[in-house]
Amino acid sequence: MLRTLAASSSTSFASPLVPSSSFSFSKPLFSLSKPFLSLSKPSSFPRHTRRFSLYKAPMNILNKLGFGSKSSDPSAMNSSIPQGPDDDVPAPGQQFAQFGAGCFWGVELAFQRVSGVTKTEVGYTQGMMHNPTYEDVCAGTTGHNEVVRVQYDPKACSYESLLDALWARHDPTTLNRQGNDVGTQYRSGIYFYTPEQENAARESLEKQQKLLNRKIVTEVLPAKKFYRAEEYHQQYLEKGGRMGSKQSAAKGCNDPIRCYG
């Protein structure tokens, strides 16, 4: 617990180790009346409530040193599991696609609006930890990316149309960043399930590169195990976001997406 050290002008404090004549607290060492650190107006983070705990990273360090609680899952740090392929199965006649483009709330809503998309889920992938939590991912030590896994009907929606929606949604030239969201979990990525998806992704990236003046940093990699994010993240903006104002997920809707609700 922090305590404010203060002394009136008529009072001095003697130290048992230092003569009082040479060591006086005529003014407080520090004061919390004007805190040296304030989170009321963050300069580098968006103004929303999905920030991770400031105490998470130190706890991770303590755990690595052998202190603190242990994970209840002995396979949590077995990287062979999260680095394996996504073994979930889409509905009959459907296909999966997986994209990273910054905060997954707004990205999911953009794909919800695409005709032919039958289901969307937000989650974490491409990392080294099994069953990561949102706080784990935000700590920036697991290597995961925030992604949207899209289930779509290839008869009603081409993979290329999903790629078009991806490019329209984010800036693929900013490394590990989208707007005020900074971190490896916000990197741009296309994670393919089939060779056909890979070829289409690379061709689309090359076409997009010709339209831009800066180098695209989007990674194109095989889809790996998908960890579904906590339930409150799912369809977050459609359900109202942090302001309780629902945004339309209707097919073809082009209303501006308010990133954090």
TrEMBL record:
<dbReference type="GO" id="GO:0034599">
    <property type="term" value="P:cellular response to oxidative stress"/>
</dbReference>
<protein>
    <recommendedName>
        <fullName>peptide-methionine (S)-S-oxide reductase</fullName>
        <ecNumber>1.8.4.11</ecNumber>
    </recommendedName>
</protein>
<keyword id="KW-0560">Oxidoreductase</keyword>
<dbReference type="GO" id="GO:0005737">
    <property type="term" value="C:cytoplasm"/>
</dbReference>
<feature type="compositionally biased region" description="Polar residues">
    <location>
        <begin position="70"/>
        <end position="82"/>
    </location>
</feature>
<comment type="similarity">
    <text>Belongs to the MsrA Met sulfoxide reductase family.</text>
</comment>
<feature type="region of interest" description="Disordered">
    <location>
        <begin position="1"/>
        <end position="20"/>
    </location>
</feature>
<dbReference type="GO" id="GO:0008113">
    <property type="term" value="F:peptide-methionine (S)-S-oxide reductase activity"/>
</dbReference>
<feature type="domain" description="Peptide methionine sulphoxide reductase MsrA">
    <location>
        <begin position="97"/>
        <end position="239"/>
    </location>
</feature>
<dbReference type="Pfam" id="PF01625">
    <property type="entry name" value="PMSR"/>
</dbReference>
<dbReference type="InterPro" id="IPR050162">
    <property type="entry name" value="MsrA_MetSO_reductase"/>
</dbReference>
<feature type="region of interest" description="Disordered">
    <location>
        <begin position="70"/>
        <end position="89"/>
    </location>
</feature>
<dbReference type="InterPro" id="IPR002569">
    <property type="entry name" value="Met_Sox_Rdtase_MsrA_dom"/>
</dbReference>
<dbReference type="InterPro" id="IPR036509">
    <property type="entry name" value="Met_Sox_Rdtase_MsrA_sf"/>
</dbReference>
